[in-house]
Write a structure and sequence with these properties.
By secondary structure, the chain is of the alpha/beta class. It has a single domain, classed as Aldolase class I (TIM Barrel, Alpha-Beta Barrel). The strands form three sheets. Strands 3-4-5-6 form a four-stranded parallel sheet, covered by helices on one side.
């Protein structure tokens, strides 16, 4: 069959999911694809989207369909905002949000420096804030986010890290510990995805959270995140302080 008449390889989200499974190491794919414990909430969320349908208005002349809108002063091509995703440096830097003219929300725990994302995104960006590391650490991130980020998103529903069974089976903690002996039983899943592994190593290697900088210690390593989340429960007093520190949407 000629390449010019071959059907497209990706037609929908499920096609993208299968393509990601072929490209990514199991540990990375399961991190994206999975949820906490028995994943009941994850499956319930998927089922909830299946109940959403469109109710078209018929017999109405609409020569131009315009889906543009404005959210908190930011213009969007369509009413879509990308939610924050932790450890997003593990994935392909598609810059799709900027190209689509929608908002990308960068997670505190993204693994990417917020300044780099602000420059590279090519579109509007918001910053999602955890209080990991305490108020001093959060204030430093807020000051950095003023350059290029138009809104702050505060996450309050993560008083503890999720008990993600897939991550435990795949050795996430061991792989990101930097200790060869701990990594060895789990490293084969990375080696059989050489293209991904090469790109990851060239991009900086072992994951550190560049937006959580502890005074005198540098960026927070992955292995410290669980304990840091448990010590950073957000209260209403914290929200008042954040609003005063940010002074924006």
């Amino acid at each position: 069959m000629s390449r010019s008449i071959q059907p497209p390889r990706v037609m929908n989200i499920e096609d993208l999911r299968r393509a990601a499974k072929r490209r990514l190491p199991r540990v990375v794919f399961d991190y994206i694809d999975g949820g906490a414990e028995d994943e009941w909430t994850l499956r319930a969320n998927c089922r909830a989207f299946e109940t959403v349908t469109l109710r078209p208005r018929c017999a109405v002349a609409t020569p131009v369909c315009d889906l543009r809108t404005t959210v908190l002063g930011t213009s969007l091509s369509i009413p879509v905002i990308l939610a924050p995703v932790g450890s997003c440096r593990l994935m392909y830097p598609a810059r799709a949000a900027g190209e689509a003219g929608i908002i990308c929300t960068l997670s505190t725990l993204s693994g990417c420096r917020l300044e780099d994302v602000a420059v590279a995104s090519g579109g509007p960006v918001w910053y999602q804030l955890y209080l990991v590391g305490g108020r001093d650490c959060a204030l430093a991130a807020i000051e950095r986010a003023r350059q290029g980020f138009s809104a702050l998103v505060v996450t309050i529903d993560t008083p503890v890290a999720g008990f993600r069974e897939r991550d435990i089976r795949n050795g996430v903690k061991e792989l990101l510990s930097g200790k060869f002996g701990a990594m060895l039983p789990f490293v084969i899943q990375l080696l059989i995805r050489p293209r991904w592994l090469a790109a990851f190593l060239m991009d900086g290697g072992l994951m550190k959270f560049e937006n959580v900088v502890i005074s005198g210690k540098g960026p927070m390593p992955y292995v410290d995140v669980t304990a840091a989340l448990e010590q950073s429960v957000v209260t209403w007093d914290d929200l008042k302080w954040i609003r005063q520190a940010w002074n924006g949407p």
